[in-house]
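#structure-requests
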Amino acid sequence: MKLTWLGCASVRLDCGNKTLWVDPFMSINGNADNPADEATFADAHEILITHGHFDHLMSIPEFNAEREIRVHCTDTPRETLLKCGIPEQRIRRFAVGEAFELGDTKISVFQGQHNKIDMRIALQTALRVGTSIRRAVEFMRIVAVHKSFPEADETVLFEVQSGGERVQIMGSLGLRENVARPELGADVLVLPFNGTSNPTPMAMRIVEAFRPKSVLLSHFDNAFPPMTSSVDLAPFISAMREKCPEIPVLLPKFGETVSVSAIKEIAAAPATEIRNVYIA
């Protein structure tokens, strides 16, 4: 398998005879750190959705207008897409606990948990937005869009298996207790590092619960300002160096592809401090 991070929570997976696109999102203004556009997702046909928020779902109607797509999602994103005019035959509903195959690739669906916005990050956002009328107007526009894309407690975690390799992709930085979880030790855990003022403790809980062989961060960029800002990764990297030095942390570059086999080689190498931050 090969992974490509495309900004926000968007990930492309090249798996055997299939290419999968997880939560593809085109930038909604020109100030994003990694501006993804239609060209970025020109080949997106098989699409997996972790949950229904706008930064995971709202680009799908534009893809549908350009080409034939198939979207795999839970009930609430399905209803949102139908309201947006997506033909029902282009949406495949799945349920938590289900496993299905696309070509020679197996996708298993597990119950996830969306993180909760805390008061500190809400205050930080308000202070940032309040610095100009233009920012405030843009913020309110994004809030209005957000209301049309509910999550409805349906965030999921995907495990993708192909060619003897396993990649787990979380929809949000939350950990639900007392639910079935995938087998420990995936080759790569794609971890959305965002949504709370102090993401490191939750991220460490997830790493300790899933014990992956490597972690690839996503959703850490300033994807839709002024609602978002870039996330400080240093505390998490320091915590990983201290508590899980055997698990490398990968910080991907927008649009660059890394193979799971290359990641496995890094994870198998002797642990050193410098190894814990790997730029794809």
